[in-house]
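The authors assume throughout that readers already know how a fold can be written as discrete tokens. For illustration, here is how one protein appears when written out as sequence plus structure tokens.
>
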Amino acid sequence: IEKTVFVVFFSGEQAKTKILKICEAFGANCYPVPEDISKQTQVTRE
């Protein structure tokens, strides 16, 4: 199975809403990333 990964960084609720709609249209999975840098590192390693 071939998969493609992309990362989107954004700021603001309006941008979040638009990005989530685009992801839904493409059937993409969305994963939240914590704002705390140490928690980001932990999530990335998992």
Remarks:
- The helical segments are 13-26, 37-45.
- The chain has one domain: 13-45.
- Residues 13-45 form one domain.
